[in-house]
Design goal:
Pfam families: BURP. With 227 residues, this protein is an alpha+beta fold. The protein is built from 5 helices and 14 strands. The chain is globular, with a radius of gyration of 18 Å.
Length: 227
């Protein structure tokens, strides 16, 4: 079975490897007090609160994030949630796995950068070795969304999906170990999905794989799984 990657050019942030999620403390994920509203209906108030001009690119990004979170329609077999705190993320993961306790039932995987640069570098990457599959019964993927404070879109998929690790070398010599998720059944995806545009086929016509480009994107897996 062939696996199609829609990330032909990786845009990776070169950062030192993390030993904890990209929010080492709850406050780093929370980003805003509980009194700050998080709803599309409150967009005008949020724009004033964060001094964001209406119609600006940042305002449009905020609106897009709020729309996705207010109308987070999952595809078949998917469970989704937007989280604005570390605790709410862990609660979501616990609910998926039916486990309790950070470090006592599940752990996270993310992309690792083996260099000391903190500069965003646009470069082509070459695969160094074969995909190394991580067998998983369940997983939860979380992605940082565009907002003035940290908001993560987390989702869990059931059905045909596979998780891999892959080593890459950038054209400037940077070594990256990245996470790859492959979706084998794309029949329920929207026809306008960006991956279909990149690969030139439609829903259900083939599997799609994507890289996790930086440490603001990560996967929670049961800690009993060997990686």
């Amino acid at each position: 079975m062939g696996l199609s990657f829609w990330c032909l050019l990786l845009v990776l942030l070169n950062k030192k490897p993390h030993k904890s999620p990209p929010f080492q403390h709850e406050q780093q994920l929370l980003g805003a007090p509980n009194s700050v509203p998080f709803s599309l209906k409150q967009l005008p108030n949020l724009l004033r609160l964060f001094s964001v001009p209406q119609g600006s690119p940042q305002a449009k990004s905020m609106e897009s994030t709020l729309q996705m979170c207010d109308d987070f329609n999952p595809i078949k077999g998917e469970i989704r949630k937007c989280v604005t705190s570390f605790d709410s993320m862990l609660d979501f993961v616990r609910g998926i796995f039916g486990l309790d306790g950070f470090g006592h039932g599940f752990t996270f995987l993310t992309t690792t950068f083996y260099n000391d640069s903190n500069t965003a570098i646009f470069q082509n990457y070459t695969v160094l070795d074969d995909l190394r599959e991580i067998p998983i019964p369940k997983m939860v993927a979380c992605h940082l969304m565009e907002f003035p404070y940290a908001v993560y879109g987390c989702h869990s998929m059931v059905g045909d999906r596979r998780l891999f690790k892959m080593s890459l070398r950038g054209e400037r010599g940077d070594i990256v170990e990245t996470i790859v998720v492959c979706h084998l059944d794309t029949s329920e995806w929207e026809p306008e999905h960006i991956s279909f545009k990149a690969l030139g086929f439609g829903p259900g016509m083939g599997p799609v794989c994507h890289f996790f480009p930086d440490q603001t994107n990560f996967v929670w897996i049961p800690s009993s799984i060997s990686v």
